Amino acid sequence: MAHENKPGQIVILNGTPRSGKTSIATVIQNTFDGVWLNLGGSQFKKMTPERYQPGIGLRPGGERPDLEPLIVTLYRAMYESIAVHSRLGINVVVDVWHHDVYSQSRNILPKCAEILKDLPVLLVGVRCPLETVMERRIATWNMGYAEDGSVPRPVVLWQESVHVPGIYDLEVDTSQLSSEECADFIRKRLEDGRSPTAFQRIADMRTKAD
Length: 210
Description:
The chain has one domain: Rossmann fold (3-Layer(aba) Sandwich), CATH 3.40.50. It has helices spanning 21-31, 41-46, 68-87, 108-115, 130-141, 153-161, 179-191, 198-209; strands at 10-14, 36-38, 91-96, 121-127, 170-173. By secondary structure, the protein is α/β, with parallel strands linked by helices. The chain has eight helices and five strands.
């Protein structure tokens, strides 16, 4: 049950598409104590009208500068929603893919971190080798290597940009661990008594930049 007198725990899973974030989120929802809602990027992308797609799922590369101001607002709306749920005592798991490789720097991650200040946030880096990502892309979407055998540039950009600045409370590798094992590591980290600091450090980066 939710506890209105205590903020809900927030777990943010950040990684590339096909890194395994959603599978981990599902395990958290099904096995962790209490109510856990998934307010992640895929859910918000589905709610976005077709003419504004891919919304917050816009890949790195600066391909749609016309969408970027809206994307900043959509990320803010998503994180404001996360904050409201937490303040009502509802636990939230978020599978997302942060990057800052737009036509210009948008500083979305630090802005989002500032929205969740004073709330319990565990930031988890979900890592996955490029080779495994490609295998999963082929298995899921039948989309793989380019005609010349190379990895498509957007996939490479995801791999290079999604873990910048690389500040996390915990990191897991889904090529080495199952979704259940990753969730168990997250559970243990939440229970070990140490206060997460990653989101506060990222929010401080924006303050220093300003």
